[in-house]
Automatic annotation (TrEMBL):
Organism: Lentinula edodes (Shiitake mushroom)
Transmembrane segments: 12-35, 47-67, 132-155, 167-192, 212-232, 244-262
Segments forming domain DUF6593: 332-487
Name assigned to this protein: Integral membrane protein
Keyword Transmembrane helix found: yes
Keywords, ordered alphabetically: Membrane, Transmembrane, Transmembrane helix
Domain of life: Eukaryota
Length: 492
């Protein structure tokens, strides 16, 4: 933990909250010791200044936390982003990207790769609103901002001026603590959900879960401090419990922050930020702990229950506005790159064929758009196998707010495409992917998660489709439903 990873924004976030928590622990001693030892007098200056500094440091950590969420998987590029903003001249272009000449030679290769990444100082991309990591960081930012108001009004000169004015004291000092504390509760709750395999199952063996649970306890303490503070002037018991809540809340935050610091230093994200070597498999949370893989064997480039791999190529746009996408077979040794399916889209029609579009392969699915009305799900007509109907009925939402879509396969079984929001997980090159499940099935039927490294050029590969043995008899449905869903926003 003695490593100073100044280039890693995750390290800065952890350090900010660790330092801030230490200050809040000191604040807790200032607040609580006079209640248990009369030799200690209440220090308005000590309480006020530590509260303001602690709240300010928390605010800095929260801002960095949002930056971390915007740059999922690229947290180690923070140092490069800062240097570029400051206009340093010693960032040299190389054939592999951009390298920082001031770095030790042992980091030269990583420096070359990092230069290819773009650091985001701000983003309005709506996709982040579907990521628990960003939602947690965003709610934490607003919680810290509101909480900072109570830190500011705790300054000795302000506190002395408002301590006899109950309404003002409640409004600008205690209330921001309650609202900000509840914001911290929401933020830590979202992080708990992100680290749990099932939303209702705790995951205490996860370091991230431990960070979140201790922050949750700290948030409860800070919230109780403000809530009990309303009665502190008229009840010594309330004043005692309010100060005690600050004391144990600060310690809980400190434990969580130290664990977060440990996680940021010892979880080496730099090896997973970029496309890995061809022999390295990216472990997916969907498929166990990785023990079922054998990295030394080419047969394990696909998890055991996936037996088919198809790559979706980027779309080709013709002069008449027709867009064509091809799906190619990819054997384990990449010797088979034949065209498995193709999809041709015009303004009014999307047609799926077996084989290449030039060969006029047999159509097996189509979507008829309503002319001039875009792609409404309640008017577009879909033909899938021997079924024809309105798109919203063929590909049904699980519920009104869900991004999942269900359909009935050729075997009469109900299947569901789920969007998996990876969030700030460096183990995945993409932020999201889709996974297909069957009712009462133990394993997924198909997924678009990148489970192996890219083995071709970016212009040749868009994303993979892995298909389990159970899905081999319905490849047509898998490809067609996936392509149709791509034509709509996740909330359509």
């Amino acid at each position: 933990m003695a490593r100073l990873e100044y280039w890693n924004v995750s390290w800065w976030v952890a350090m900010a909250f660790t330092v801030g928590s230490i200050i809040w622990v000191v604040n807790g001693f200032y607040s609580f010791l006079p209640f248990v030892d009369t030799s200690f007098s209440m220090s308005t200056s000590g309480i006020g200044w530590t509260a303001w500094v602690g709240a300010t440091v928390f605010e800095v950590g929260a801002v960095l936390g949002v930056l971390e969420a915007w740059n999922r998987g690229e947290t180690a590029n923070f140092g490069w982003g800062v240097r570029q903003v400051l206009g340093y001249e010693n960032i040299l272009e190389t054939s592999g990207g951009i390298a920082d000449s001031s770095l030790p030679s042992s980091e030269g290769k990583e420096g070359n790769m990092k230069g290819q990444q773009k650091w985001r100082w701000f983003s309005s991309d709506p996709k982040y609103w579907h990521e628990l990591g960003f939602l947690a960081a965003f709610s934490q930012f607003w919680a810290a901002t509101i909480f900072w108001i109570s830190g500011f009004t705790a300054l000795p000169s302000i506190q002395i001026a408002i301590e006899t004015r109950t309404g003002v004291l409640d409004g600008v000092f205690w209330t921001p603590q309650v609202v900000g504390g509840m914001g911290f509760v929401i933020s830590s709750s979202l992080l708990l959900l992100e680290t749990q395999k099932r939303w209702y199952l705790p995951n205490p063996l996860s370091l991230g879960w431990q960070v979140a649970i201790w922050n949750f306890i700290g948030a409860i303490g800070f919230t109780l401090c403000g809530a009990l503070g309303y009665a502190a002037q008229v009840s010594t018991k309330a004043a005692y419990q309010s100060s005690l809540s600050t004391f144990w809340g600060g310690w809980a935050f400190l434990i969580g922050s130290v664990l977060q610091w440990y996680e940021s230093v010892f979880f080496d994200t730099q090896k997973m930020v970029f496309t890995p070597d061809a022999t390295l498999i990216i472990r997916s949370k969907e498929y166990g702990d990785g023990s079922e893989y054998d990295i030394g064997s080419t047969s394990s480039m696909i998890p055991d229950h996936y037996v088919k791999r198809i790559w979706r190529k980027p779309g080709l746009l013709a002069g008449n506005g027709t867009r064509t996408v091809q799906y190619i077979n990819k054997s384990l040794d990449s010797s088979d790159r034949s065209i498995a399916y193709s999809a041709t889209e015009t303004k009014e029609l999307l047609v799926f064929r077996v084989g290449g579009y030039k060969n006029s392969g047999e159509p097996f699915a189509k979507v008829q758009w309503v002319p001039g009305s875009g792609k409404p799900t309640d008017k577009s007509i879909v033909t899938l196998g021997n079924k024809t109907g309105v798109l919203k009925d063929i590909l049904k939402k699980s519920n009104t707010l869900s991004t999942s879509r269900m359909f009935v396969g050729p075997d009469g079984v109900e299947y569901k495409w789920k969007i998996i929001w990876v969030g700030n997980d460096p183990a995945f090159p993409e932020a999201t992917f889709r996974t297909l499940y069957a009712r009462h099935s133990k394993h997924p039927i198909a997924t678009t998660a990148r489970l192996t490294s890219r083995d071709g050029l970016p212009q040749d590969e868009s994303y993979p489709i892995y298909i389990a043995e159970q899905g081999l008899n319905m490849q047509h449905y898998i490809v067609a439903t996936l392509a149709v869903l791509e034509s709509f926003s996740p909330s359509a």
